[in-house]
Amino acid sequence: MLIETFALPLLLGIFIALLACRLIEWIPHDIDLQESEWIAQILNEHLTPEALKAMEHPSQETLSTAFRFWQWPPLSATNALCTICTLSVLTLAFATHPSNWQSFFWSIWGAGLVVLAFVDARTKLLPDALTLPLLWLGIVIQLFPETRTVGLEMSIIGAVAGYLPLWLLAQAYRLIRGRDGLGMGDLKLLAAMGVWSGPFLLPQVLLLAALLAIAVFVMERVLRRSANSFHDERPFGPSIVAAYFIVLLFTHSLGTI
């Protein structure tokens, strides 16, 4: 009986962990493919055929055939860390949500956040192809009593609270400084967190994420003696995701969510 109880979550956890490892390899590859197509289109419009032949750039066929999604994830430190993070999130999901459906959807949500953090760390992008489905999934589950987390009304308020204030701040920064200070992917990620957990966690997540980002910057300067400027672009998604899990775990331990 004990084996049957834990067999399904274990198999589901292994499958989701393998899928997460594959996604953190495939999504950056897909981004590179789109960038290659964009560059090729520009070159075709502005260069002569002779100049195009003289230049070597990967074709769409080369990039698409060089990578297959349904392959076993390669052994690497990144995939090992992704597996550990994913399994930890899944364990937390099944330990804190007694309902099977709640555990299942929180597992999808948590694994998706892990993938987004790794992809952002590698590409400095939070792709809409993953962020938006997670956001809409959080809204859909509010429609059913057995899966809802904060209710539909608080979920919508959380989405607005996660996106609109920082969007206004980002637009003001762009007008003043003439460049972007916060990516739109970060705002969509925060909106998705507001959908799943409501608006009240967001200030804590933002504050902790900012502190984590500053700590990472200081460690890079001290340990690696990096010469990068403070104004250089850095991924903020991993700090947001880490802060969200810390705040969520702390609020669960207090019984406030």
Task: Please describe what this structure looks like.
The protein is mainly α and 257 residues long. It has a domain at 124-257. The chain is 75% helix and 0% strand. It has helices spanning 2-46, 49-54, 60-65, 77-96, 100-123, 128-140, 152-177, 184-197, 202-223, 237-254. The relative contact order is 0.09.
The biggest beta sheet is recorded as: none
Flag low-confidence runs: 58-66
- Percent of residues in helices comes to over 70%
The rounded distance between the terminal residues' Cα atoms is: 31 Å
Strand content: under 5%
Q: What's the total count of β strands?
A: 0
Short description:
With 257 residues, the protein is mainly alpha-helical. 75% of the residues lie in helices and 0% in strands. The chain has a domain at 124-257.
How are the secondary structure elements laid out?
Layout: H1 2-46, H2 49-54, H3 60-65, H4 77-96, H5 100-123, H6 128-140, H7 152-177, H8 184-197, H9 202-223, H10 237-254
Task: List the defining traits of the structure above.
mainly alpha; 0% strand; 257 residues; single chain; 10 helices
